[in-house]
Fold Phosphoglycerate mutase family protein.
Amino acid sequence: MQTTARSSASAPSSPLPSSTSPPPPQRVAFLSLHRRDLLLLPAALSLQLAPSAAAPAPAAARGLFRMPPAALANRYFLVRAGESVYEGQGLLRTNPVAKTSVDNGLSPVGLRQTARAALELQRLGACEDDCWIWPSITQRAYQAAEIIAAANGINRSRIVPEYSFLDARGLGAFEGKSLDTLPEVYASDNISPDMKPPPISDGTPNESVADVFVRVTQLMSILETQYSGETVVIVSPDSDNLSILQAGLIGLDLLRHSSLFFKPGEVRPVDPSSIPEYKQPASAVFKCTNPPSCK
């Protein structure tokens, strides 16, 4: 018994079981990446590593066009197409349904007026280094664009037809009346730019000066966004598109746009020096006492 006890005492004691089990080995989790994610990874890394650039001021962003503009990215020439057959008959025709009709095309007098306009653009050097010609699709305006292109050696591929923003101003109930009634329209314009001609049921729009102002501002926004450092010749079938556009550009009160009336076949360059440096408030409030020089 003693021998057994001694041998038991001399035997190495077995290690006691630990009260806590060892932690399981850690597993590495792999992200599930698609091939598209791998392709986009270099670009994402370059964006993270690149120094952050300050965002441009909203007012300086291209396409946010306001009247009068802070500056113009292009050079512009405003051209009214020559007399139409309807105008030669002494009639007002502004219904867009008839804008591509033969009678809305150039009369013999209008052809001569447009030829002189084309030569005037040549004299002014408008298309010396090439140019873009933006006419309304109204028959006389597009015909005028083709004459201008031919006289100035411009490829017809640089004629860009405008389908709505350069439509002749819709004169409502004055449709079909004598050209001699046009001063009545301008008398209303002098009261408020929001006054519309009386409506008519044949579908002819009755547009106020403010309505046309929205259209031509949208046109300029497109041109200033699409081009830079180019020359653009804008060809309108009537005067109001151009007089309202020029009034907006130079900051003239829109009530007085008719003082900038364009005769058939008249050419007028947009002079950047006539755009006022003072641009607040907007053009509808800015006063000009000596149009078109309003600096």
Remarks:
- Residues 209-226 form the longest helix (18 residues).
- The mean pLDDT is 84.
- Residues 71 and 200 are 40 Å apart (CA to CA).
